[in-house]
Amino acid sequence: MMLTEKLEQLRTLFKEMEQALIAYSGGIDSTLVAKIAYDILGDRALAVTAVSPSLLPEELEDAILQAATIGISHQIVQTHEMSNPNYTSNPVNRCYFCKSELHDTLKPLALKLGYPYVVDGVNADDLHDYRPGIQAAKERGARSPLAEVNISKVEVRQLSQQLGLPWWDKPAQPCLSSRFPYGEEITVAKLQRVGRAEIYLRKLGLKNLRVRSDGDTARIELPPEQIKEFVLTTDLPTIVSAFQKLGFIYVTLDLEGYRSGKLNQVLNRDLSVKA
């Protein structure tokens, strides 16, 4: 019943908006927002996807397909965060500069087209992680409907499945820049290298994974329960060779396994040391 109530609250929220532009990445969160916005607003809802080197072409293709399946109007814009040294130097608040660029692009577009609101796919769980980009969005007046009605990541998937969205179990796919340790410079070549490496592994049937890039080393992260089978059944030399062809020298497997927000554990460690 609680989930049903939250869905109704979301619908009411969009009815009150009357018109909305959705910052739409094609991920499960913003896609759910786009779906509900379209169901309520129809052609008064617009999904806009920002394209930059940190978005793989395959992810853009997914976003286009999903928007067409929903029926929502969809536009593509270019963002230029790679031109900002505050972003490419990869500080701990890198995401702030990324989202600043995004919303500095979307807000004028929304005003030009007559949309009074820009909304994103931030969910309630995101508010409890280190996400400096959320602050950048808020400073520019963006709203986060999922967070406003306290919808968690699990509930996003439950609602997506309930509404018949075929990608309800799609793995999270954050910006490719999140694959690099803070302080390592972000370049287009590095983004493409790590992106190609992840696509290679997905073509082997692996889904929920990350390839972290640290200098010339690729560190593969898989769900802990999949590590043993991966080691025993995968042709490891072939994977090493494929990654080396992409430009990595060393290929490692993270024995702890994948977990969301892992990049930020260095921040928690630094805080504990200072304390």
Description of the structure:
Helices cover 48% and strands 12% of the residues. It has 12 helices and 7 strands. The strands form 2 sheets. Strands 3-2-1-4 form a 4-stranded parallel β-sheet, sandwiched between helices. Helix 1 packs across helix 2, helix 2 runs parallel beside helix 3 and helix 5 runs parallel beside helix 6.
Could you give a short description of this structure?
The chain has 275 residues and is of the alpha/beta class. It has helices at residues 2-17, 28-41, 57-70, 85-88, 94-113, 132-139, 145-148, 153-162, 188-202, 227-233, 236-246, 265-274; strands spanning 20-23, 45-51, 73-78, 118-119, 210-214, 217-221, 250-253. The strands form 2 sheets. A 4-stranded parallel beta sheet has the order 3-2-1-4, with helices on both faces.
**What is the strand arrangement across the widest sheet?**
3-2-1-4
User: Roughly what percent helix?
Assistant: 40-55%
Unreliable segments (pLDDT under 50, ≥5 consecutive)? 271-275
Mean pLDDT across residues? 93
